[in-house]
User: Fold this.
Amino acid sequence: MNNHRTLKEYLLDHLADHPEQRELVMIMSNMATIGETISTQTNKAGLAGILGSLGQTNIQGETIQRLDVFANELCKKYLRATEHFAAMASEEESTVVDMGNDGARAKYVIAFDPLDGSSNIDVNVSIGTIFSVHKRLFNIDRLDERQFLQKGRDQVLAGYILYGSSTVLVFSFGDGVHEFTLDHGIGEYFLSNERVMIPPVAEYYSVNEGNTVYFERKDADFIAYLRDEKKLSARYIGSLVADFHRNMIKGGVYLYPAVDKGGKGIYTGKIRLNYELKPMAFLLEQAGGLATDGEMNILDMEPTSLHERRAAILGSRDIVEEYMAR
Ligand code: AFP
Assistant:
């Protein structure tokens, strides 16, 4: 740990330097509390009876896990009480969620994947929470979907919490990426990596290679190139947060190219733009990496719907640029 600096101390220092970011600092502190609560629940999920499926599917057609429901409800109730948000979007909610706050205090909107990697919950594999905060647009209704269709570049705060062998919180206000690790015993997050920078040379590639048959030829070829010519090691968990975190710390690239699962020559992305890709792209750029869907920088995209999905190539700049050059 770096000087045993706590998140609270870090946020107070940040506030002293940026008094105009008072609400954002409070939001960050709220997110840390949410992360600690989900982490505790995740650790005792088997005992608490919240593992397993509710037997329902969410709007993406995926089976809802009980921890997903817990995390989603927590985000809604807790953040509503803070009165900072006019609206919320979540992977688990088909439409914009009314946060009940229409006053001048509700200056922000937040998009979430409350529990990313939910297929890993039951098998004790790392999962995470991803969040993206934008300023509320006061010229349109607060519940208008367009509140969430802002470019990734306009995020004012983004981050994730990884529930792995330890719980880490990684975030950025747009001035560098910082990583804190939760000490459950003390109930504090401690600074574990100030100004995270992705190593310039990639060591790993992360892709579901079982999808190779569904990829376009150019994508299958590029992955073969990473494996056979660049001699990168393969690591794939199936939780974006976990794969992304490893690549950002160790150097690597996460690929989820468009797939044609219907066999009709129609290739579509899987990863959600608003609450998976935009926040990760924001962090990546701050850390010296790059994020694209193959055609453009994720941060420059204008989303067209709440749950839009895109292809994703995220990671070390050299590899992503090579992908785009092809
Ligand atoms: P969930 O939050 O619905 O579990 O989404 C997981 C995810 O979007 C991302 O976290 C993974 O990297 C990716 O999907 C895994 O997809 P495959 O199971 O198709 O490899």
